[in-house]
Amino acid sequence: MQGYRHRLFDENYFFKKINSTNTKANKLIKDGIATGNFLVAAAEQSGGLGRNKNGWESPLGGLWLTAGMYGLTVESNLTLFTGNCIHKALCALYPELAEKLKIKWPNDLYYEERKLCGILVTAIPAKKYHLLGIGVDTNILEFSEALEDIATSLQLELEREVSNQDVASAIFDVFANELPDFIEKGLDSKYFNQHAFLTNRQIELDTDFASYTGLYKGINSKGAILLELKQGMIQPFYAGSVVKY
């Protein structure tokens, strides 16, 4: 990714190894170094960040990025929109994966039953920035013992090496092209529901207040997950973590 450029970004920063692209992006903003839209990429992360302060294993071979987007006039659903964009990009690049590639609410992409991609979106309102953290297991052939049964990579599924630059460009092309419609019209929940990983699954959702178990019924136009808690009773939840499915 060294020397990578995309029309979406005014500035680009590449590191061979870094603690976290998200942490670096935050510091670039705090120190007033980054201006406009910018991209931080790393060949390897030693302290990659996942959702809810979880770690994200980020060895050599993967695609590890944080995009700093300035002045986006969106209040919610940027994570789900980014998930839609990544799904569209990967399906266009690798049509043979399209049937089994799914989007898992709220911030992952799965191939069959294995995680392929994670998304971490954070806002810095005081600086008018959103940070889009994207991690894609592209050319990883071996995972740690903790992940070997639950993660996969593009190279493993396609049985060939892929170009990280091609994957990044495809993602940001879709993102740039569809961003105006997202800002004007909101989330394309229909697309998400057509490719949802949790369809027809009984799931457990952990929220800040309690845990709920129900049948996944998709998401609504505002991005809330819909659970049928009992027959005929469908409840929307706007935040939480799917802990069982």
Secondary structure blueprint with pairings:
Blueprint: E1 11-15, H1 21-30, E2 38-42, E3 45-49, E4 55-58, E5 63-70, H2 78-93, E6 101-104, E7 108-111, E8 114-124, E9 129-136, H3 154-158, H4 164-185, H5 189-194, E10 202-206, E11 211-219, E12 225-230, E13 233-237, E14 241-244
Parallel strand pairs: 1-2
Antiparallel strand pairs: 2-5, 3-4, 5-9, 6-7, 7-8, 8-9, 10-11, 10-14, 11-12, 12-13
Helix pairs in contact: 2-4
What is the assigned CATH homologous superfamily of the largest domain? Answer: Bira Bifunctional Protein, Domain 2
Q: How many whole angstroms does the radius of gyration measure?
A: 18 Å
Helix content: 10-25%
What is the element string, with H for helices and E for strands? EHEEEEHEEEEHHHEEEEE
Class by helix and strand content?
alpha+beta
Please indicate the percent range of residues in DSSP E strands (runs of 2 or more): 25-35%
CATH class of the largest domain: Alpha Beta
What does this structure look like?
With 245 residues, this protein is an alpha+beta fold. It folds into 2 domains: 11-194, BirA Bifunctional Protein, domain 2, CATH 3.30.930.10; 202-244, SH3 type barrels (Roll). It is built from 5 helices and 14 strands. The chain has helices spanning 21-30, 78-93, 154-158, 164-185, 189-194; strands at 11-15, 38-42, 45-49, 55-58, 63-70, 101-104, 108-111, 114-124, 129-136, 202-206, 211-219, 225-230, 233-237, 241-244. A 7-stranded mixed sheet has the order 1-2-5-9-8-7-6, with helices on both faces. Strands 13-12-11-10-14 form a 5-stranded antiparallel sheet. Helix 2 (78-93) packs across helix 4. It starts with 10 loop residues before the first strand and ends with a strand. The mean pLDDT is 95.
